Amino acid sequence: MLTRRPLLAASLAVPVIAALSGRALAQGAPSEATPGASSPGNANPAQALPVEETSSMQRPADAFLAIDLQNDFMPGGALAVAHGDEVVSVVNLLASAFSNVVLTQDWHPADHVSFAANHPGRKPFETMTLPYGEQTLWPVHCVQGSPGAELYAGLKPTIKRARAIVRKGQNPAIDSYSAFVEADHKTKTGLAGYLRELGVTRVYCCGLATDYCVAWSALDARAAGFEVALIDDASRAIDRNGSLAAAWQQLRAAGVMRVGVEEVLRG
Ligand SMILES: [Zn+2]
């Protein structure tokens, strides 16, 4: 309980609730009445968003990439990220500001190499050396077609807006934290080409977990030539053995921007 980040959580709760109620108010009231009807002085960045989805492209050169918001990574799941469920409402809010919305799903066969259970005598969170390098062994998670692999139910508004859902980690012999390149650093998922064909030049990443799949996706997006921002308060970390600090060091060195939800919504 004490490991949560209270400042971030507290700073998020108000704007999100205000944003959602502000949008609801705007639907039924003349626009000039809305600011006075809600809280005066509330500098809510989301109020500038259109009330309904529009037919025109929103931020056509940007993509919003929400990583691995699946049941197994949520509290109670097989590989739970603490407080992972806290990001879902902000992810839905962020997704409403983009037309290029892409989701990922970790999607492993039951005999996947990353599962400790597939290596006799090995335990979850140990590491072992595989042909492509060092691999952390995980509890069995996100098995193809299982309830744990499904996208979190609260994510429905984002799922509805998604242009694509990228599944990764299908190869039994290679893990894939990244949405772009598998853990062998060679095999591509095709996402970079897809985004380029859409005319995307900037990628906003968020989701679970900051220090693994989100960070690796951000680094590979950068390596593929995109401008990249990681939305820190729309992500949550596993943070084992200093992994979060190490990830941020790499992200900074690669030129990945660290941004917050409000900043993204301001455009
Ligand atoms: Zn996995």
Layout of SSEs?
Blueprint: H1 6-28, H2 34-37, E1 62-67, H3 88-95, E2 101-106, E3 127-130, E4 133-136, H4 156-161, E5 164-168, H5 191-198, E6 202-208, H6 210-223, E7 227-236, H7 243-254, E8 257-259, H8 261-266
Parallel strand pairs: 1-2, 1-6, 2-5, 6-7, 7-8
Antiparallel strand pairs: 3-4
The structure holds zinc ion (ZN).
What attributes does this structure have?
globular, 6-stranded parallel beta sheet, 267 residues, alpha/beta, disordered N terminus, binds zinc ion
What does this 3D model show about the protein?
30% of the residues lie in helices and 17% in strands. Strands 5-2-1-6-7-8 form a six-stranded parallel sheet, sandwiched between helices. It has a two-stranded antiparallel ribbon with strand order 3-4. Strand 1, helix 3 and strand 2 form a beta-alpha-beta unit. Helix 6 runs parallel beside helix 7. The radius of gyration is 19 Å and the shape is globular. It starts with 5 loop residues before the first helix and ends with a helix. The relative contact order is 0.15. The N terminus is likely disordered. The site of zinc ion has 6 residues, from loops. Zinc ion (ZN) binds next to loops.
Quick synopsis:
Helices cover 30% and strands 17% of the residues.
Structural class: alpha/beta
Major sheet summary line: 6 strands, parallel
Task: Calculate the mean pLDDT score and round it.
Answer: 86
Radius of gyration: 19 Å
| Contiguous runs where pLDDT drops below 50 for at least 5 residues | 1-43
* String of helices and strands: HHEHEEEHEHEHEHEH
Determine the strand fraction and express it as a percent band. 15-25%
**Strands in their spatial order, largest beta sheet:** 5-2-1-6-7-8
The distinct ligands, each listed once, are: zinc ion
Identify the overall geometry.
globular
Helix amount, in percent? 25-40%
Report how far the terminal alpha carbons are from each other.
33 Å
Q: What is the number of helices?
A: 8
- The number of strands is 8
